[in-house]
Amino acid sequence: MGGLGAVDGATSLVSALVSAVRDDPLLAIVAAVGLVVLLGIGAWLLRRYLRTRGEEFESVLAAHEAVSVLMHPDPDPDAMSCALAVRRLAESVDTEATIYYAGEIRHHENRAFETVLNVDFEQIEHAHEATDKPVVLVDHNEPRGVPGAEKIDPIAVVDHHPGDGTGSDLTDVRPDAGACASIMSEYFQQLGWVPGEAEDEQERPAISADVTTGLIYGIMSDTANLTKSCSEAEFRAASFLYSGVDQDKLDRIANPDIDEETLGVKARAFDEREVRNAFAVSDVGAVSNVDAVPQAADELLRLEGINAVVVLAEKDGTVHLKGRSRDDRIHMGNTLQAAIDDIPMAGAGGHPRMGGGQLSLDHMKGLGPKDGVGREQLHERLFEAMNGEL
Ligand SMILES: [Mn+2]
Fold it and tell me: How far is ligand 1, taken at its centre, from the CA of residue 159, in Å?
């Protein structure tokens, strides 16, 4: 009975409204306008709700005349390719984008990326050099590694690392993704761009061969050529990008010439290795380019039966340590820290799988408040640390 009452009530309400509108044409117009406005708002909300991440990102860029794209310190190919992608997207909505980084672009593959793709990134020494424009962060979600970083308040953050960093207008952080370049590729795909150069009279915007090639290499380099920490997103992106990749440039970036010293240091790291259990320590002596040291450590780690390595090298009165581990029981950053703990003027740290450290040769010789530590002794301590005895 209550249900019928409600129906009766609704019916009488409608008829009351209808007669009110009939009596007053003005009310009819107001009601019609109200209805149109409501429908409009509904449609707008629906569109907003259904917008892809790519469309959202594009509109964040379009809202500004100029933006700063900030890569993490010592940017890698993933960060560099994402920055290029953001600039390409920004261009298409008449937003000027300048790409900044702190630290250095050093590793030979990173330099090859920079050279082959002809890119111009601005190096900064303080955050304020980038914060005169709204900041977009790529491949990291919390600004770091540059004085004033804590004052950076990004408008957008696109990343694949775990962390709590957010952008005021857009936060797209996907720790499941193997590379940030996969996310940027997805944006292009969602926005209907074509990879590579534009064909004549094509209406869809083209990514450019350089940016397309950069993105595929960003993915390759962050996932060890699609073999590590990969998700479906990387394969989807690779398939989307494929037709626009400049294969010759990709080869030059991915397989740059190796200089004589680097190969020499790798050879010395192999010859001089001391192996105990599954751990290796190798002292390569004096080097003129310390970049060769981590590469030698990477190479030595590939030797069968070896799960953790530390390579030592000397340059300008400093001993450089580079450690690598693929053994879950060895946190390389902590291992190096434990090994050099008591040595004055020494520092070390890093991640579970890679770490680095530096010692002053003078202090190893005993200059300073504590007794020195000999090379032999240092090797012993490194083995002890890897064995978990320190
Ligand atoms: Mn990355």
Answer: 7
- The whole-number mean pLDDT for each consecutive block of 10 residues of the chain, a chain of 390 residues, reads 63 76 81 90 84 96 98 95 98 97 89 92 96 97 94 97 95 96 98 89 86 98 93 98 97 91 96 96 94 94 96 95 94 94 86 91 68 84 92
Radius of gyration of the chain (CA): 29
79 Cα–ligand 1 center, Å: 6
Q: Which CATH superfamily is domain 55-254 in?
A: inorganic pyrophosphatase (n-terminal core) (3.90.1640.10)
Residues near ion ligand 1 (CB < 5 Å) are: 78, 139, 180, 222
CA distance 71 to 383: 36
φ/ψ region of 268 (left if φ > 0, alpha if ψ in -120 to 50, else beta) reads alpha
Q: Please report which helix (H) or strand (E) contains residue 97, including its range.
A: strand 96-101
* Number of neighbouring beta carbons within 10 Å of residue 379: 18
Q: Are 117 and 102 in contact (CB under 8 A)?
A: no
CATH of domain 260-386: 3.10.310.30
Backbone angles phi and psi of 256, in degrees to 5: -70, 155
Pairing relation of β-strands 96-101 and 66-70? parallel
Asked if residue 141 lies in contact with residue 156, where contact means CB atoms within 8 angstroms, the answer is: no
pTM: 0.77
